[in-house]
C-alpha cells in the first residue's frame, strides 16, 4: 500500500512539472474557430495508466423530487496519490452527480463551513434566477445555511450541466479549489435508436488543480501556471470499452479557467448535445475545443480488440495576449472483450426552433476589453457592479447581440437563465445545430448570437466564463421583465 501511495505521488509530481496555462474561451462542433496553430509547447512526460475510471456518487430524483444537503468545507482529500487540502462539497473533490428529470423540483440545503461567503449556481439550467432559485446575487455567510428551491419546467432540455459557486469576486478561487460537480437531466437517450437507449454512460468531468505545498492553490491564481489535469478526480484513469461498442461520454469542463482540446486519435466524437441542449443533427469531429464551463455529450465507438488509445488534450493557443496549453494525457481507453455490432445513427436527432427568421425586438453590442496589465476586464467599458442594470430584455421576445472582443486573447461568452443560438463567428454564418450557453469569442473578432427570453423574469448575468476574468470585472447584469425594456 505504501509503495502504491509513493508511486502515486511521483505520478502527480510528473504531471505538475508538465504544466498548462491560459486565458480561454472556445467552441466546438462544425462552427469551431481556432486562434491558429499553437506555438511549440513542451509535452508532459508520460503518466502510466491508473485505476479504472470511477463514476461519481449519485443523488437521483424520485417521484419528481430531489432533496439533498451540500456542505461546503475545507478538507483533506486523496488526489493524484497525495493527501491535499481542498475546498469540497460534502468532503469530496468530485462530489455527487445530481440526476433530475424535466418538470422536477429540487431542494438543496447549502451549509457554509468555510471562512468566506459562497453560494451555488446550477450552471446552464433554464430556471428562475430570482428568490431562492438560481439567484447568484444571494451570498451565504460563513456558518450560515441557505435553502434553495428550484422548480424546473417540463420542457427542460436534456443533457449534462454542472454546479459551482458564483460568489463575486471569489468565484475562480472557490471553483479552482475543488467546488464543482455534475448535474444530469435525464432523457437524452430517448432520441437514439432503440438498440442504443441502454448504452453505457461515462462521466468525463475535467478538472485541474495547482499546488501550493499540501493544498490546492486558491489565491493569486495564474491561469498560465503549471496545473494537473484529472478526470473525475483521477490521474489518467482507464476507460474500458468493447470493440465496436457505442458509449455515451459526458465531456464536461468544470474547472475555473483553462481550455481543453479533446481528441481520441483514430476515433470520431459524434456530438449529440452541447451545453445540455440536444443537437438537431448528429455531427462528427476529430477533436473538440471545450472552454471552461462547456459540455459535450458524445457517442464513442470501441476500437479494434486489444487496442489501447490515449484520450488527450491537444496543444491550444488562446492568442498573443493569452496562453499556450500543452498536450496532456487525460485517460487511457482500452478495447477488450466480445465485439459489438455497430449501430446506424439517424440523420436527424432532436427538434429545436431555428431563430434565423425570428422577429428581433432589440439589437445590442457587447464589447470586451482589458487593461494592458491584464488585471482589469471590462464589458462596454465598465466593470461589474451588482447594483447596476447593464442590459434589459422583455419576456417572450428575441434579441440579437454582437459580442466584440477588442483584446489579443480569446474570451468566452456565457449567458444565464436562457440559452442562445450562435449565428456567426467573425462574420461567417454558423449552421444551426441547436442552442448553447457558452461560446468562445476570437481575439480581435466577434460573434453574433440570438436569445429568446422565455418563462422567467428577474435579474441575471452574462459574462466571460474564464472565471479569473469574471472576478476581475468582465460581467454584466441583465434584467428580464414582463414590461417594455428601456433603452440601454
Q: Can you walk through the features of this model?
A:
By secondary structure, the chain is mainly beta. It is built from 3 helices and 35 strands. The strands form 8 sheets. The protein has a 6-stranded mixed β-sheet with strand order 13-10-15-20-17-18. It has a 6-stranded mixed β-sheet with strand order 26-25-28-33-30-31, with no helix packed on it. It is globular, with a radius of gyration of 21 Å. Mean pLDDT is 91; it is low at 1-41.
Fold topology:
Elements: H1 2-18, E1 58-60, E2 65-79, E3 82-89, E4 97-100, E5 105-112, E6 121-123, E7 145-151, E8 159-164, H2 171-176, E9 181-185, E10 201-209, E11 211-212, E12 215-216, E13 228-231, E14 238-241, E15 246-253, E16 260-263, E17 269-274, E18 277-285, E19 287-290, E20 295-301, E21 308-313, E22 316-317, E23 324-325, E24 328-335, E25 360-370, E26 377-379, E27 391-394, E28 397-405, E29 411-415, E30 420-425, E31 428-429, E32 438-441, E33 446-453, E34 458-463, H3 467-471, E35 475-481
Amino acid at each position: 500500500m505504501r509503495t502504491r501511495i509513493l508511486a502515486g505521488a511521483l505520478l502527480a509530481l510528473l504531471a505538475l512539472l508538465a504544466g498548462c496555462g491560459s486565458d480561454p474561451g472556445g467552441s466546438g462542433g462544425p462552427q469551431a474557430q481556432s486562434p491558429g496553430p499553437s506555438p511549440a509547447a513542451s509535452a508532459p512526460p508520460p503518466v502510466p495508466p491508473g485505476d479504472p475510471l470511477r463514476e461519481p456518487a449519485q443523488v437521483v430524483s424520485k417521484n419528481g423530487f430531489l432533496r439533498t444537503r451540500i456542505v461546503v468545507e475545507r478538507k483533506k482529500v486523496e488526489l493524484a496519490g497525495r493527501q491535499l487540502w481542498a475546498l469540497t462539497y460534502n468532503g469530496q473533490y468530485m462530489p455527487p452527480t445530481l440526476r433530475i428529470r424535466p418538470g422536477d423540483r429540487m431542494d438543496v440545503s447549502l451549509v457554509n463551513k468555510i471562512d468566506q461567503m459562497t453560494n451555488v449556481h446550477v450552471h446552464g439550467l433554464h430556471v428562475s434566477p430570482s428568490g431562492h432559485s438560481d439567484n447568484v446575487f444571494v451570498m451565504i455567510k460563513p456558518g450560515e445555511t441557505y435553502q434553495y428551491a428550484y422548480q424546473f419546467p417540463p420542457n427542460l432540455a436534456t443533457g449534462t450541466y454542472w454546479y459551482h459557486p458564483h460568489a463575486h469576486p471569489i468565484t475562480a478561487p472557490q471553483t479552482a479549489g475543488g467546488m464543482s460537480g455534475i448535474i444530469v437531466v435525464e432523457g437524452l437517450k430517448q432520441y437514439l435508436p432503440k438498440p442504443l437507449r441502454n448504452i453505457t454512460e461515462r462521466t468525463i468531468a475535467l478538472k485541474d488543480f495547482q499546488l501550493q505545498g499540501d493544498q490546492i492553490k486558491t489565491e493569486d491564481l495564474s491561469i498560465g501556471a503549471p496545473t494537473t489535469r484529472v478526470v473525475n478526480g483521477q490521474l489518467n484513469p482507464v476507460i474500458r470499452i468493447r470493440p465496436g461498442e457505442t458509449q455515451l461520454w459526458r465531456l464536461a469542463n468544470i474547472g475555473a479557467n483553462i481550455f481543453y482540446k479533446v481528441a481520441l486519435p483514430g476515433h470520431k466524437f459524434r456530438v449529440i448535445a452541447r451545453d445540455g441542449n440536444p443537437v438537431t443533427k448528429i455531427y462528427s469531429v476529430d477533436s473538440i475545443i471545450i472552454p471552461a464551463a462547456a459540455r459535450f455529450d458524445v457517442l464513442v465507438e470501441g476500437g479494434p480488440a486489444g487496442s489501447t488509445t490515449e484520450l488527450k488534450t491537444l496543444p491550444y493557443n488562446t492568442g498573443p495576449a493569452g496562453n499556450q496549453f500543452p498536450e496532456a494525457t487525460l485517460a487511457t481507453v482500452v478495447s477488450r472483450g466480445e465485439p459489438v455490432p455497430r449501430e446506424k445513427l439517424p440523420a436527424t436527432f432532436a427538434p429545436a426552433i431555428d431563430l434565423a427568421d425570428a422577429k428581433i425586438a432589440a439589437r445590442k453590442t457587447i464589447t470586451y476589453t482589458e487593461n494592458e496589465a491584464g488585471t482589469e476586464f471590462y464589458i462596454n467599458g465598465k466593470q461589474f457592479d451588482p447594483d447596476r442594470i447593464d442590459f434589459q430584455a422583455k419576456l417572450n421576445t428575441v434579441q440579437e447581440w454582437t459580442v466584440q472582443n477588442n483584446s489579443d486573447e480569446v474570451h468566452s461568452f456565457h449567458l444565464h437563465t436562457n440559452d442562445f443560438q450562435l449565428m456567426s463567428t467573425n462574420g461567417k454564418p454558423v449552421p444551426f445545430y441547436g442552442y448553447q450557453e457558452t461560446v468562445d469569442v476570437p481575439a480581435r473578432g466577434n460573434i453574433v448570437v440570438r436569445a429568446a427570453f422565455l418563462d422567467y423574469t428577474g435579474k441575471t448575468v452574462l459574462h466571460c466564463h474564464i472565471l479569473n476574468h469574471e472576478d476581475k470585472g468582465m460581467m454584466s447584469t441583465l434584467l428580464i421583465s414582463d414590461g417594455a425594456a428601456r433603452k440601454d
